[in-house]
């Protein structure tokens, strides 16, 4: 190394702590307190860079610097690093003739020819004598300025060098010399010596850990000539992943990514081009090959076999494939771990992983494709020998090895098995991903039965995960599946899954075509076991013809349960329950309970989740309680059942809309709609539109309801099953908020016509609720109809029941049964749907006033306050008009009011509230009049009115009330 640095050093990043320790050691040496520091790290971790930093610092501080390195090629040369270090000293300085060195000239002569007597051959000195001679020499050369002796790569040094180093480390503390050595961690004498010196406090170990992401960013920025903030996160993430924080690898990868075009410099800094592949740099391949070679032939073979398996690998499989006994296997694994090439790969002691992905790729480059295939085949056979049934992840693991061995059909079959297991366990994400890989392998295969099996399982996963769009894009695959070797039952099953996907996408005609194709493939003499699945799906399609749908569902359930097909039976029970829910809730719940029992008995988690969601839906419809829906939403999100998740999510948004929480409802449908559209989930999209229509209608925004209905018709044609609900739950309510009951009745009639043409999924279009109330108010419905509706399944649903109770209250009031009428209204007022409650109070108040029952004035005040706060001026004005007709003085409403809502509901005016505020201080009439610039007589009138409205006994009680209210 030259005396002065004539070239800049690379930027030192991520080593601040290590650098500071070296700086402190050099400072201590300059002051006569020596020491030993051993830098420990694998290849490329920056050991030499730290040494160069120490050398630079020492030279700039005027210290004597001696630098030696062990040779990396060929056998170790005796005392090579010491000879190189001392030779450098005598190349730059005169021969030292110091009295303290004379006794050691012969010992030093083995290292320095100048100290050797003329004509005398070199005589090897003992390590102790040679160590003491070197120690004396260092003391002389570093006198008054300090000395740095840096010896690199001691892991390749001869035993004599290590013996001298040990002596120096044990004795250097009393003089001004810093001994700096670098060692690779791993089996060997040098590593043993480093640990021994550390244990007896003769040396400080300085391990070099991987760089963290900020340090990798700094390194990349220095190599690219950019400011650190101009290196984006994706670049840093890629470098951290592929280099595992190794500085050498990270630097080489930056260069390779630039050369390949993966990394592009631009005015804003740099960016990744993902579609461009980066080859492993040759310097990295050379380094990895050297690391593997140092482990010996067996160790290298183990590492290359592990690289064929992947970045993570089970050592038990390696041992079986390479026919290594356990002791040899563990010895090679320990050596690779110590060398920093691999590390434990998780909680399972059998699994290990390469420290960085680049190592595995570089090792693969040492093998020919034929070698890789042979090792993969041996590893696959080892997996089957160790785990014959391929439980858990071993199935997909064996499939990956079969693919790398070139056995594509076997890989596809194993992936189908793994995907089917994941699907049956309810792990939809894993099932879909695994079966997608299987289809990629089987898509071009000439094995017809294999292709049918793979396609069927993939379609099942896509049905359950709700990706209708992806599934229907595979329809063209049917053209290549008509193969004599394909069993008709398997081909029919594929048609059935395509029919289910078409149902999800709202393509009913296509679904019918697929079911007809399935029946044609099976033939007229097909057994009930074969047609049960076809009947179950057909029942869902025939819901608009209840008798036919019920017949198909019953037949599907009977045949499926007889043949032991629990999933098909669940589908049939679901169809039964959906049909029943339109007429009788108890029957629907019984069907869904039976569905859940089957799922529990046969361990079908997806069907259990579906049955649980349907039961939660029934509970919400009956009681308005959405807690079970919330739990179901979380469960479906976890398992990845997209169709079910969007269905439950739309119900929760619907619940929020009916509760008057429109912003939250809009947020929920906005989050869901885009994904549902992408997945092709027609029903979920339609539900989102319905919720938006209800939100708009309940806020009196007719134009937005018009837009929603137009969007619904565009999405599903004129026959959307949700059209009836838009008319009955959005338009009719909107018309009543516009004080147009005739129009509301027209909308309810339109809803009934839509429902008769295409039945709504829920009987909430108004016939069993709002329509009944309007008919009772007009005198067009009597007790008989009221009881029929109230006792029916639809009449018991929470949304309908609140209007049914109000209708009963009106009829009870007409009969003079005031207490029962008031009890019915009280039950409604406790309900969770504020628009329905206050609209209902507004509608029945006139009947209550006429028939002299209830508290119509209080109801109207509450309704007026609610509508005013909700920004609905038309019904608010109607409430005030009705109050005036009742003889109540109605205060003028400003745009903003200081009167708290509880007092507004009692009819307290702005001026009265001002008087009440002053009464909290027990002020008399004259003081209040002076404060408000009114007469004492006017104050007295306001006080009297306040006593009446707040129901206080006297003026003193009113003052106490005012004080409490202010607090």
UniProtKB/TrEMBL annotation:
<dbReference type="InterPro" id="IPR036388">
    <property type="entry name" value="WH-like_DNA-bd_sf"/>
</dbReference>
<dbReference type="InterPro" id="IPR027417">
    <property type="entry name" value="P-loop_NTPase"/>
</dbReference>
<dbReference type="GO" id="GO:0003677">
    <property type="term" value="F:DNA binding"/>
</dbReference>
<feature type="domain" description="HTH luxR-type">
    <location>
        <begin position="901"/>
        <end position="966"/>
    </location>
</feature>
<dbReference type="Pfam" id="PF00196">
    <property type="entry name" value="GerE"/>
</dbReference>
<dbReference type="InterPro" id="IPR011990">
    <property type="entry name" value="TPR-like_helical_dom_sf"/>
</dbReference>
<keyword id="KW-0067">ATP-binding</keyword>
<dbReference type="Pfam" id="PF13191">
    <property type="entry name" value="AAA_16"/>
</dbReference>
<dbReference type="GO" id="GO:0006355">
    <property type="term" value="P:regulation of DNA-templated transcription"/>
</dbReference>
<dbReference type="InterPro" id="IPR041664">
    <property type="entry name" value="AAA_16"/>
</dbReference>
<protein>
    <submittedName>
        <fullName>Putative ATPase</fullName>
    </submittedName>
</protein>
<dbReference type="GO" id="GO:0005737">
    <property type="term" value="C:cytoplasm"/>
</dbReference>
<dbReference type="InterPro" id="IPR016032">
    <property type="entry name" value="Sig_transdc_resp-reg_C-effctor"/>
</dbReference>
<dbReference type="GO" id="GO:0004016">
    <property type="term" value="F:adenylate cyclase activity"/>
</dbReference>
<dbReference type="GO" id="GO:0005524">
    <property type="term" value="F:ATP binding"/>
</dbReference>
<dbReference type="InterPro" id="IPR000792">
    <property type="entry name" value="Tscrpt_reg_LuxR_C"/>
</dbReference>
<keyword id="KW-0547">Nucleotide-binding</keyword>
């Amino acid at each position: 190394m030259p005396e002065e640095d004539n070239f800049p050093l690379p930027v030192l990043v991520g080593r601040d702590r290590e650098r500071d320790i070296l700086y402190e050691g050099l400072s201590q040496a300059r002051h006569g307190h020596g020491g030993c520091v051993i830098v420990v790290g694998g290849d490329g971790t920056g050991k030499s860079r730290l040494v160069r930093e120490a050398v630079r610092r020492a030279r700039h501080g005027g210290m004597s610097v001696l630098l030696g390195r062990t040779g990396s090629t060929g056998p170790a040369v005796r005392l090579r690093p010491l000879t190189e270090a001392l030779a450098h000293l005598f190349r730059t300085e005169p021969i030292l003739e110091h009295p303290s060195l004379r006794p050691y000239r012969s010992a030093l002569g083995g290292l320095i020819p100048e100290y050797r007597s003329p004509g005398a051959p070199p005589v090897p000195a003992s390590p102790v004598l040679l160590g003491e001679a070197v120690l004396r020499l260092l003391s002389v050369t570093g006198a008054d300025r300090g000395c740095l002796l840096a010896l690199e790569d001691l892991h390749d040094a001869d035993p004599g060098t290590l013996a001298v180093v040990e002596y120096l480390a044990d004795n250097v503390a009393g003089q001004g010399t810093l001994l700096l050595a670098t060692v690779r961690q791993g089996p060997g004498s040098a590593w043993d010596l480093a640990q021994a010196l550390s244990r007896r406090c003769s040396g400080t170990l300085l391990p070099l850990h991987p760089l963290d992401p900020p340090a990798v960013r700094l390194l990349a920025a220095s190599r690219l000539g950019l400011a650190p903030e101009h290196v984006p996160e994706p670049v840093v993430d890629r470098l951290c992943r592929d280099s595992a924080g190794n500085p050498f690898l990270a630097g080489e990868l930056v260069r390779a990514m630039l050369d390949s075009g993966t990394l592009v410099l631009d005015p804003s800094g740099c960016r990744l081009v993902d579609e461009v592949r980066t080859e492993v740099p040759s310097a990295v391949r050379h380094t990895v090959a050297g690391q593997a070679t140092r482990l010996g032939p067996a160790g290298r073979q183990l590492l290359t076999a592990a690289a064929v398996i992947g970045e993570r690998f089970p050592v038990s499989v390696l041992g079986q494939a390479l026919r290594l006994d356990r002791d040899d296997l563990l010895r090679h694994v320990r050596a690779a771990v110590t060398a920093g090439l691999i590390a434990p790969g998780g909680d399972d002691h059998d699994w290990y992983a390469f420290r960085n992905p680049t190592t595995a790729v570089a090792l693969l480059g040492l093998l020919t494709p034929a070698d890789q295939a042979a090792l993969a085949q041996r590893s696959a056979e080892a997996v089957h020998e160790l785990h014959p049934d391929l439980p858990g992840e071993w199935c997909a693991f064996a499939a990956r090895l079969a693919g790398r061995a070139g056995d594509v059909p076997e890989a596809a079959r194993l992936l189908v098995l793994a995907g089917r297991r994941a699907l049956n366990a309810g792990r939809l994400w894993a099932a879909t991903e695994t079966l997608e890989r299987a289809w990629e392998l089987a898509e071009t295969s000439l094995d017809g039965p294999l292709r049918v099996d793979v396609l069927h399982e993939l379609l099942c996963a896509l049905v359950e995960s709700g990706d209708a769009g992806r599934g229907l894009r595979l329809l063209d695959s049917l053209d290549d599946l008509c193969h004599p070797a394909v069993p008709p039952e398997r081909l029919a099953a594929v048609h059935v899954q395509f029919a289910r996907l078409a149902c999800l996408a709202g393509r009913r005609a296509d679904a019918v075509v697929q079911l007809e194709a399935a029946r044609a493939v099976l033939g007229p003499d097909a057994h009930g076991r074969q047609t049960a699945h076809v009947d179950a799906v057909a029942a869902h399609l025939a819901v608009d013809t209840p008798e036919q749908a019920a017949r198909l569902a019953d037949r599907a359930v009977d045949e499926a349960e007889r043949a032991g097909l629990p999933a098909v039976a669940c589908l049939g029970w679901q169809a039964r329950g959906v049909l029943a829910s339109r007429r009788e809730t108890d029957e629907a719940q019984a069907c869904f309970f039976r569905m859940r029992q089957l799922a529990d008995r046969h361990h079908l988690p997806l069907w259990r989740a579906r049955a649980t969601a349907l039961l939660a839906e029934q509970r919400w419809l009956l009681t308005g309680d959405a807690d079970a829906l919330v739990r179901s939403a979380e469960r479906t999100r976890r398992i990845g059942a997209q169709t079910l998740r969007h269905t439950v999510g739309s119900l929760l948004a619907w619940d929020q809309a009916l509760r008057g929480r429109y912003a939250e409802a809009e947020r929920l449908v906005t989050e869901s709609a885009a994904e549902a559209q992408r997945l092709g989930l027609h029903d979920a999209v339609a539900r989102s539109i319905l919720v938006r229509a209800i939100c708009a209608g309940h806020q009196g925004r007719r134009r937005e309801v018009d837009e929603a209905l137009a969007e619904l018709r565009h999405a599903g044609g004129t026959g959307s099953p949700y059209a009836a609900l838009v008319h009955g739950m959005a338009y009719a309510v909107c018309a009543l908020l516009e004080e147009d009951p005739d129009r509301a009745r027209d909308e309810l009639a339109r809803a009934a016509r839509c429902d008769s043409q295409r039945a709504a999924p829920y009987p909430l279009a108004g016939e069993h609720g709002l329509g009944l109330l309007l008919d009772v108010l007009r005198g067009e419905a009597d007790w008989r109809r009221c009881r029929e509706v109230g006792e029916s399944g639809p009449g018991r649903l929470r949304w309908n029941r609140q209007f049914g109770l109000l209708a009963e209250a009106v009829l009870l009031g007409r009969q003079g049964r005031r207490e029962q009428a008031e009890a019915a209204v009280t039950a409604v007022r406790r309900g969770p749907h504020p628009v329905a409650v206050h609209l209902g109070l507004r509608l029945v108040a006139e009947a209550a006033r006429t028939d002299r029952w209830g508290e119509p004035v209080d109801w109207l005040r509450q309704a007026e306050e609610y509508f005013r706060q909700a920004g609905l001026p038309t019904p608010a004005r109607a409430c005030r008009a009705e109050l005036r007709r009742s003889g109540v003085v109605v205060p003028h409403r400003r745009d903003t009011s200081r009167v708290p809502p509880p007092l507004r509901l009692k009819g307290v005016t702005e001026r009265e509230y001002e008087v009440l505020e002053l009464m909290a201080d027990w002020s008399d009439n004259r003081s209040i009049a002076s404060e408000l610039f009114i007469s004492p007589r006017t104050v007295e009138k306001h006080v009297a009115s306040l006593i009446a409205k707040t129901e206080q006994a006297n003026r003193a009680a009113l003052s106490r009330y005012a004080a409490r209210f202010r607090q």
